[in-house]
Amino acid sequence: MTTSANRTVLCLLGPTASGKTDLAIALARRQPTDLVSVDSAMVYRGMDIGTAKPDARTLAEFPHALIDIREPHEGYSAAAFVADACRCIEAAFAAARMPILVGGTMLYFKALLEGLADLPATSPELRQKLRRQSQRNGLAVMYRRLQAVDPVAAERIDSNNSQRLLRALEVYENSGIPISKFWAEQRAQGLAERLDCQPHCIALVPPRPLIHQRIERRFNEMLDAGLLREVDALRRRKELHEDSPSMRAVGYRQAWQHLEGLTSEAEMIERALAATRQLAKRQFTWLRGWPDLYTIDPVRQDAAAAALQYLDTVAIVP
User: Fold this and answer.
1) Which of 58, 125, 308, 313 could lock onto 54 through a cystine, CB 3.0 to 4.6 A?
2) Cα gap 205→95, rounded to integer Å
3) Where are the alpha helices (DSSP H) in 95-175?
4) Contacts of 302 (CB under 8 A, 6+ apart)
5) Are 259 and 232 in contact (CB under 8 A)?
6) Distances (CA, A) of 189 to 43, 99, 117, 167, 184
7) CA atoms within a 13 Å half-sphere pointing along the CA-CB vector of 66
């Protein structure tokens, strides 16, 4: 059992549709744990189908912290996640349980494990200027600008994520320094130092063709489960619009545009699948450079058995 003297934090990472939640639950069946979601879309209430949120029965048996903690029109940042996750981790330690953080939002994991970069302040005028340029020229033009001045950041930022995209351009235009340089040189306090604990990271990394197959199968299952009804209900909320932070989640923007009559169903499906494959590609890119990462290929290994064997080697399992 995890005690206050054994302050171990287990992080389960992986691309979308890799089986992270199933692995977390398999481990939770074996020893006392607290599960903490690391997913920037599952934080939103009313976004259940399109986020592949665990169903009510699963959450009743295996509660996940940081699910359903925001309304879809509200923002949620990496800094807010770090503060929330640290509280959850300390609560798990106080209860002599192992915190298991599970999800695919790599930026949140990085912010938690390594700390947040100390970025320079910028002016409201510059922020508004970039926002107007984005509205006039479109995100694709702004993304190409970022690729030209900071290709490292562009590789890690979703071209449809206006908030992160414009923030990266804002930092560069204000300081003349790419935001990726601040990321690389950050000296912020990481999780191990902040909470006096020992993080261990396990990644599920199936072959990409398998991920693509799972993405397609899962999206079709989402449609059958009522994804369009879910998005239509969100569209009817007056405080929510297509550019709300929550609607950047893959599948939701494409479904919204289809319901607005801008695309056919076939176009919506293809665009959603393409966006999800791009998400998986970015997640693989993050994982390639992740330090001290133990990887599991679930095609060749039983994920739960491999994870337990690894935990045993680092003296986490009694």
Assistant:
1) 58
2) 31
3) 106-114, 124-137, 139-149, 151-156, 162-175
4) none
5) yes
6) 25, 19, 9, 22, 14
7) 28
Per-residue pLDDT tens for 107-142? 999 999 988 877 777 788 898 899 899 989 998 999
Q: How many CA atoms lie within 13 A of 230 on its CB side?
A: 22
The tokens for 81 are 């996640």
pTM flag (> 0.85): no
Domains of the chain (ranges plus CATH)?
Answer: 8-116+188-313 (3.40.50.300), 124-185 (1.10.20.140)
- pLDDT higher than threshold 70 for residue 2: no
* pLDDT digit string, tens, across residues 59-102: 999 999 999 999 999 989 888 999 999 999 999 999 999 999 99
Q: Are residues 255 and 50 in contact, defined by beta-carbon separation less than 8 angstroms?
A: yes
CB 165 within 8 A of CB 143: yes
Cβ atoms 28, 297 nearer than 8 A: no
Ordered alpha helix ranges (H), the chain: 20-28, 56-61, 78-94, 106-114, 124-137, 139-149, 151-156, 162-175, 179-185, 191-195, 208-225, 227-235, 252-259, 265-288, 303-313
